[in-house]
Design a protein that fits this description.
The chain contains 10 helices and 4 strands. The termini are far apart. The chain has one domain: 3-Layer(aba) Sandwich (NADH Oxidase), CATH 3.40.109.10.
Length: about 260
């Protein structure tokens, strides 16, 4: 196995970090690898905020519900960003050009948003892999999609910018015991030529590999895995807040038929 395959095969989400700042050279290497990520049309439909203010990290630890964010040596907020291109078109009077050319001027729509989300996440993964190669672990925080009003105000985010993920980085502690989470077998994830829906028995077989992880918790709650994951992933407090918040994040992107100045 080559070094890259070994690195990808042993990576884990790291939520506790060595008490060391990130070496400036390492940080720059991470950022440069991030910028080399594949991007739709070479348009780089993302931006990144380097969160260095301890008070902001502390606030994120509260709004995202993960105390370790406050202690992470490096915190990068990845944004799906079409505001930059929208502003560029406005500054070059594209709305007026569209009138003369009898074209429709459209602000960023939901389709472009998905492309921007892809760009941002690909860049984030480049950063995570680059960091791992330097002995720097990372953890994705999807809860950044919640707390819409607070996060928009904290970072001064305009309409056509969506915080798609937060990445925390830090060196691996010397006393850390690596424990990777189980993954589904490829036969349940990778299909040939066409999508294949799973039967109930196939789903049960797929989930059998991770059932042990929840065994003690499930026995205490006297619930099935299906019941517990649905209650947590769909109806949990964090899930409901994220659903509410994402609806607010998406509102500007759904108004593609109107001009937004």
């Amino acid at each position: 196995m080559n070094e890259t395959l070994s690195l990808l095969g042993t990576r884990m989400s790291l939520r506790r970090y060595a008490d060391r700042t990130i070496v400036p050279k390492h940080k720059e290497q991470i950022l440069q690898c991030m910028l080399r990520a594949p991007t739709a049309g070479n348009m780089m439909l993302y931006s990144v905020i380097d969160v260095t203010d301890p008070s902001q990290k502390g606030k994120l630890a509260e709004t995202c519900g993960h105390p370790f964010i406050a202690k992470a040596p490096l915190v990068l907020l990845f944004l799906a960003d079409l505001q930059r291109w929208h502003d560029y078109y406005l500054s070059h009077e594209i709305p007026a050009y569209c009138v003369k050319a009898k074209l429709e001027f459209r602000p960023p729509d939901a389709g472009k948003l998905l492309m921007a989300c892809c760009d941002a996440l690909i860049a984030a993964q480049n950063a995570a892999v680059a960091a791992e190669s330097l002995g720097i672990g990372s953890c994705y925080i999807g809860d950044i999609l919640g707390a819409h009003d607070q996060h928009r105000e904290m970072f001064g985010l305009p309409d056509f910018v969506l915080p798609i993920t937060l990445l925390c980085f830090g060196y691996y502690p010397d006393d850390l015991e690596r424990r990777q989470s189980a993954r589904f077998e490829s036969r349940y994830i990778v299909f040939r030529d066409q999508y294949r829906r799973l039967s109930g028995s196939a789903s049960d077989a797929m989930l059998s590999g991770i059932q042990a992880k929840f065994a003690d918790f499930l026995s205490k709650k006297q619930r099935t895995l299906a019941e517990q994951t649905y209650r947590g992933f769909t109806l949990g407090e964090t899930a409901l807040e994220q659903a509410r918040s994402v609806q607010q994040w998406l509102e500007p992107w759904m108004k593609a038929g109107t001009f937004v100045d």
